[in-house]
Each structure stands twice: as C-alpha cells, then as structure tokens.
Design a protein that fits this description.
Layout: H1 2-11, H2 15-50, H3 77-91, E1 97-102, E2 118-122, H4 124-130, H5 132-139, E3 149-153, H6 157-169, H7 179-188, H8 192-204, H9 211-220, H10 224-236, H11 238-241, H12 252-259, H13 269-282, H14 284-287, H15 291-295, H16 308-315, H17 318-332, E4 360-366, E5 373-376, E6 383-386, E7 401-406, E8 412-417, E9 422-426, E10 431-434, E11 446-450, E12 453-457, E13 471-475, E14 480-484, E15 495-499, E16 502-506, E17 511-515, E18 520-524, E19 534-538, E20 541-545, E21 551-555, E22 560-564, E23 573-581, E24 584-594, E25 597-606, E26 611-614, E27 621-622, E28 629-635, E29 641-642, E30 647-648, H18 650-654, H19 659-672, E31 690-692
Parallel strand pairs: 1-3
Antiparallel strand pairs: 1-2, 4-5, 4-28, 5-6, 6-29, 7-8, 7-31, 8-9, 9-10, 11-12, 12-13, 13-14, 15-16, 16-17, 17-18, 19-20, 20-21, 21-22, 23-24, 24-25, 25-26, 25-27, 27-30
C-alpha cells in the first residue's frame, strides 16, 4: 500500500505542473531530433561534396530540403526605407539632434566662427549608421551624445549639406566648385566613399593648368593614388608644362621628385634643365638655397658636345653664376676641355634616358585575338609587341572582333564586338585599362575619338541582325556613356573618321557628317562607288580606297571629291591599309606567301608628284594574321617587348616544303571542323578599322 500510495502521490501532481513537464519533455525530444537530423543532413552534404556522383541522401525525402520556415526578402525595402528617411529629414520630422556648422568656407578666411553658419536637423541613428565620425560621437559616451545641438567648427556649410544628403540617400553631387572643400569635409568625417569620389573626380579632370595644384592637394591630404595619377600626368605632358608657370607652384621636394622621374616624356634633357631654371627664377630669393639640389636632378650625362653652347649660356645667367658657379664649372669643363659630367648626377651610375627621348611614331598591327599587337617602324625595321586585352577571350567566342582608334594625345581605345567593353592603353605601364561598359552590343561597328569623347557608330544587333542607328558617346573625363543623335541611315561596312571637330561616316553609298556642337547628322557628297575598302584623314582631307586601285579624296571645306594616283596592286594581295604616319601617308598591303607567312609592303604617298613610292621595308615575312588592321601612334619602345619572333626571312620560306600549306589547312580544320558549313551569307564582312575573325582562321 505504501508503494501504491507513493505511486499515487507522484501521479497526482498539479495539472499545470504536469503540462509544463510534458511540454519540456516534448521540447527536448524535438530539439534532440532536430539536432540529430541536422547533423545527419550536414554529414550527408559533406558526403555529397566529397562524392558528387554517389546518392547519399536516398534516406531523406525531397521535401526535407525545403522544410522549415520560409525566409522572404523585399528587394525594394532598402530603397524605400532610405527614401522615407530622406522625406522625414526634409520635413524635419522625428529629428533628435541639430548639427550647427560654422566657418571653413572660402567666404570666411581663416575658418573662424561667423554668422554664415547653417543648422541641420537630423536623426542620430541615421548619421551614426552612415558616418563613422558621428557614430563615435553619438555612441561613444562623449559629451555631444547627450546634447540637442552639436557645433562643428572649420567646416564648410555647403559641404556639410552635401554630406548629410549623402547619409540619407547614398548620393553625392561633386562639381569643380565644391570638390576640394567636399573632400576636406569627407576626410574629417571619415566618409571613405565621398573622399574617393572626390579624388576620382580630380584625377579624371587633370589638365595642364591644374595638375600641379592637384599634386599639392594630394600631398596635403596624403592621398597616394591621386598623387600617383598627378605625377603620371605631369610626366606625360612635361614638355608642355616646362614652358608654363604651373611647375613653379611646387615646393622643392615636389619639384625634385618630378625632375627625377624616368618617365618624363621629353625630347631632350634641355627641357628638364629649362624647367629647373624656370622654377628657380620664379622666386630667386627664397629658392637660392635649393639651387644645387635642383640642378643635380638634371641628367647632365645626356648632354653632348652639340650642347656646349647651351651649357656655356647657363653660366652666363647671373643667378646661377652667383649661387652655383663651381658646380657649373664642373659640368662645363674638365682638365681636357671636355664635358665632365659623369659624376654630377643626383643618381648613382649612369642614369637612364628619359622615356620620351626613346619614343617614336610606329605603325601598330591589330591582328588575331590570340596574338599580341605588333608595333613596327617601317623606316628602321624595328618591331615590338604590345599586349592585347583580347587574349583572355582567345579560346571562346564571346569576342569576335574589335574596333580601334587613336586620340591626338596618342591614347589608344579598343572596343570589343559584340561585347560591350571599351579599353584604353596605358603606354608607360604597357597595359590596357577597362573603362565603363558600353550601352549596346553590336558587331560591324566603328569607333572614333573627338575632343574628349569616344563615339561608337553603326553595325548590327548580334542577336537579331537588325542594323543599329543609335550612336553611343563616351566621356573620357566622366567615364560615362550616353546616347546622342541617331544616324539617319544605317552603316555597316564603313569608316568613321574625324576632321576639323566633326565626325564623318563614309561608305561606298553615302557619307554623313556629325556636328557635336549641335548634335546633328548632315548629308554630304557621297562616294558613289561599287566597293569600299579603307579610309583615313591626311592633311585635313579624307583619303578613301574604294574600287581597287581607285583612290578618291574628299575635301570637307569645299565639299568635293577628287581622284588621285591609284594604289599599286599585286596578285594575291588580300589586305589594304591606308595610315597617316606622322606627316606622311602610308599604304600597307599584305600578300600571303605561305600559310601564316605574309609579305608586307609599305608605300609612301608623294603628294607633290601624286605617286606612291615603295620605301623598301625591311620587315621580311610576317608570321601574323593576314587580316590585320593598322593605326599609327607614338609609343615607348623601351616599355615594349621585342617582336622579332614574328618575322621570317624569305630565304627560309623558299627552303620549306609546300606541304606547310596543307598542314595549315589541317590545323584550320582541327579548330573549326570544316569551312564548308558556312554559307555565303555566313561569311562576315571586313569593315574599315575593325577586324572580324572567323573561328579557326588563325
């Protein structure tokens, strides 16, 4: 009975307690089961990853993968929340702090307290979430965290308004008028995005007039990237800077750094010496102490006996004679009466020549995407290779062709087809930089540079084949694309050139002229030929190779066409390129001698006698794609790689077996099965200044 009583006693717990105990017991069982299932699921996933082809989840139903609560996310929530917070800010609703900004603008010299301050009613949580400075202020237990009003001194009110607007919207407005003050405010408030946005804005707007001041600005705020961009710009345009007053703004350390750079694009060391003298003479009293330091940055080793008169003239300058005559004596003459300058440089050993002293105008061959580009001097026979951004697409079909153009500053731009990429070549780094993505996919287009803008014109839609009339325009300064006035007529096999601040689209049937000043296309006198091969601008006229060997020239000022001497022709010639090379007009033709071995011939146009003259190129046979296109640009051979591996002597070819031709066709078949699968309509057409590759053609 006692046992029974005890049992009864235990079973007679209060109903509420029993329910609680039962619930706890069930919860523990569910937790254990869930944990076991979770471990089993995790082990199964690991086994699936280790053995992807083994079915290790066969013991679980498919529904197990989709069990549990559903996690849903509103994609519009974040944007709607920001918009509503901005609406509250504009209406001054739910604001819990006032930011008072005093001084710092240009209207208040010295940044002192003035009556021109502004107050901003804000939300602490928004400012803290968006700005590290305010997060520390409002959440770090500082005195300001409990104040209804916080005063900021030495801050530009207009910049603060932009920053608060950024905190609520994620957008910031940068202009030439506010960029430096906005950068300073963002730097103080630790807003990295705004700081970098301002630095990028300044870097994209570097020019001859502001590059020195931007360098000083970058040094003041310790921004290495902006500083590097400023120095690179100054190096490339040093020849123009040396005759201006901008370099005189630099301090001694900055000037020495500029003068010591290897990548100064100068034709001779005299340019560097003149820039140093101009800086010294701009403030002789204060800069006299740095005279010797500045002159030591000049690489006197690269002066020759031809510069003796120039060097003698330096000693005649009273400023130099007063402060560094002994140094100049050592530069001018040793005991043998010769230039004794081997020990006078600020660098040890024999300093390198400046990169600009070795620069030269070269014809650039743009060939198959599997190969680098070739840089060739038709008068000396020098040949180098330039890397291609297309090699990453060499084994796919995403990029089938490219279009290229060159700016007056010798910037190379390459647009891929049909993808929407645009690249620009950096000559000092010898590399290509990817720019903002284009707006449209096209093939059969052409590209041209005009006054700081890159234009994409013509072509077809790669998906539908429809001809595209929309014209894309890229701003080099803003790194942005937009659409401008469309073409009144479509273009496919054509050439896009620039003459006298206008674009000209030329084909065998029509010619259009685009005026950027009024964003309008106008009809011009058409070529009216059966065929169109190539065109380029020479002496402000458009030279066109149409029905071979016919050459016609268009004069935009008179609006008239005329015929000139026809081009020389040769059997088996399959490529005609006409290129402006400095002050000369060149005709470059390609004749296939053997598979992948092409004889390249260069003729120069004699304007006076209206004839084409073979310049006797020393190129030999080019082991390169025969469908190359050509442009001429100023490059730095010292930054390029040798290209002799692409040259084969003709004597070597004659000794080879003719079976190489069949080997070449076998290689072609191995890449693309058979060319018989192409119908006549499937063969792509080659348009001027762009090359379309058939898969397996190289």
């Amino acid at each position: 009975m006692a046992g029974a009583a005890s049992s009864v006693c235990v079973s007679r717990q209060p109903a509420g307690v029993a329910r609680v105990m039962t619930s706890l017991h069930l919860a523990r069982r569910k937790e254990t089961d869930a944990r076991d299932i979770g471990f089993a699921f995790f082990r199964a996933q690991r086994q699936v990853l280790a053995h992807p082809y083994r079915s290790v989840m066969s013991g679980y139903a498919v529904s197990g993968f989709f069990s549990g609560p559903e996690m849903l996310e509103d994609p519009a929530h974040a944007a709607a929340l920001l918009a509503q917070l901005k609406a509250f800010y504009d209406a001054r609703l739910l604001c819990d702090v006032t930011i008072r900004v005093l001084g710092g603008g240009p209207e208040e010299p010295g940044g002192g307290v003035s009556d021109s301050g502004r107050s901003f009613s804000c939300n602490r949580n928004v400012l803290s979430a968006a700005c590290p400075y305010f997060k520390s202020m409002f959440t770090g237990g500082l005195y300001e965290s409990k104040q209804q009003q916080v005063t900021l001194h030495d801050m530009d009110p207009e910049s603060m308004a932009l920053i608060i607007d950024y905190c609520y919207t994620g957008r910031v407005t940068v202009t030439e008028a506010n960029v430096q003050r906005l950068y300073a405010a963002a730097d103080m408030l630790q807003l990295e995005y705004v700081r970098q946005a301002c630095a990028g804005y300044l870097a994209r707007r570097l020019d001859l007039h502001n590059c020195a001041s931007i360098l000083r600005f970058a040094d003041a705020f310790d921004h290495p990237e902006l500083r590097s961009r400023s120095l690179a710009y100054m190096a490339r345009h040093f020849e123009q800077l040396a005759v201006g007053e901008e370099l005189c703004e630099l301090n001694l350390a900055q000037l020495k750094e500029v003068l010591a750079m290897d990548n100064l694009d100068v034709s001779s060391e005299r340019v560097v010496c003149n820039a140093a003298l101009r800086w010294l003479e701009a403030n002789p009293k204060e800069r006299a102490s740095g005279c010797l330091e500045v002159l030591r940055c000049v690489r006197w080793q690269h002066f020759t006996d031809k510069d003796q008169v120039y060097l003698e003239g330096l000693k005649a300058k009273s400023f130099l004679r007063k402060h560094c005559s002994q140094y100049l004596d050592a530069v001018l003459q040793d005991k043998d009466g010769k230039l004794a300058i081997s020990t006078l440089s600020c660098q040890e050993g024999s300093p390198l020549r400046r990169i600009g002293m070795l620069a030269k105008e070269m014809v650039i061959f743009f060939g198959h995407r599997k190969e680098p580009f070739l840089c060739y001097d038709p008068y000396s026979g020098d040949i180098y290779t330039m890397p291609s951004p297309l090699t990453t697409f060499a084994h796919g079909k995403a990029v089938t062709s490219s279009a290229v153009c060159v700016s007056p500053e010798n910037d190379l731009y390459l647009a891929t087809q049909p993808m929407k990429q645009l690249w620009v070549y950096s000559p000092v780094q010898n590399s290509w930089q990817l720019l903002a993505e284009r707006l449209l996919c096209r093939e059969g287009m052409d590209v041209a540079y005009l006054n700081g803008y890159v234009y994409i014109v013509g072509g077809r839609d790669p998906s539908t084949g429809a001809k595209i009339r929309e014209v894309e325009c890229y701003s080099v300064q803003r790194n942005q694309w937009t659409l401008v006035a469309p073409l009144p007529h479509s273009f496919y096999s054509f050439e896009l050139v620039t003459v006298n601040d206008h674009l000209y689209a030329v084909s065998n049937k029509r010619m259009l002229c685009y005026d950027p000043a009024c964003n309008q296309w106008l009809n011009c006198a058409s070529l009216k030929r059966c065929d169109f091969q190539e065109a380029c601008v020479f002496n402000e006229e458009i030279y066109c190779i149409c029905d071979i060997p016919v050459v016609k020239v268009y004069n935009p000022a008179r609006g008239e066409w005329r015929r000139v001497c026809p081009i020389p022709t040769e059997g088996n010639t399959n490529n005609y390129q006409i290129v402006r090379h400095g002050s000369k007009l060149l005709l470059i033709t390609c004749t296939t001698v053997q598979w992948k071995k092409n004889r390249v011939t260069v003729h120069e146009y004699d304007v006076t006698n209206d004839r084409w003259v073979n310049i006797g190129t020393m190129l030999g046979l080019l082991h390169y794609d025969c469908g190359f296109i050509c442009l001429s640009a100023r490059v730095y051979p010292s930054c390029l790689e040798p290209g002799q591996s692409f040259i084969t002597e003709e004597d070597d070819v004659r000794s080879e077996s003719s079976t190489d031709w069949m080997d070449g066709f076998s290689e072609l078949d191995s890449e693309s099965d058979s060319l018989s699968s192409f119908s006549e309509d499937d063969w792509p057409r080659v348009s001027a200044r762009h090359r379309i590759y058939v898969e397996g053609s190289f």
